[in-house]
Amino acid sequence: MTIEPDELLTTTRSVRKRLDLTRPVPPELVRECLEIALQAPTGGNRQEWHWIVVTDPGLRKTIGDYYGRSWRRYYESGSSARGLFQDDPVRSAAQARVSDSATYLGDHMGEVPVLVIGCIKVGGGLPPGNQAGLWGSLLPAAWSYMLAARARGLGTAWTTLHLAYESEIATLLGIPGDVRQGVLLPTAYYTGETFKPASRQPLEEVLHADRW
Fold this sequence. Notes:
Elements: H1 5-11, H2 27-37, E1 49-54, H3 57-76, H4 89-108, E2 114-121, H5 132-135, H6 139-151, E3 154-156, H7 166-173, E4 179-189
Antiparallel strand pairs: 1-2, 2-4, 3-4
Helix pairs in contact: 2-6, 3-4
């Protein structure tokens, strides 16, 4: 599967309803994606990331249960995508679709063949104040993983709602106390043909030259 860079960058979507829950994902394919992820930059070249690839059915179900519980609480709070842009019919319809697909993933996370959790070592704990420097040493690699997966016919989704139960999942997976989780990436083959660029705000509405 060959995808030109611009197409890869504009068609790597959060895949939820179209994840194939029945088709196994070869471990070597996940390893290939992670090898590419490790080429991403990190602050001071520390490379203090860690990656937990969860394929055990029992562990996936437990993580999925935590994720589903967190999703339902988030949805019921009214803060999910469905509650946004209610005064804009076009965006509101798109938000409803996003929310529906997120609900589906919340119900089926534990059935996804591979769950990849990106973590980072924090030493003495999370830094106070602005943490951009810390998470900036993990999140680019996670995005690289998603791009590599897309190029290999796999779908992923950027999720963080499991972090409401970070300590429980850390205990479940034996994650050390000085390692924090940053992202959960469900990974599976996807159904259907391909993906297209999403509708986005015009650049003119968000571009600021020299000053705001």
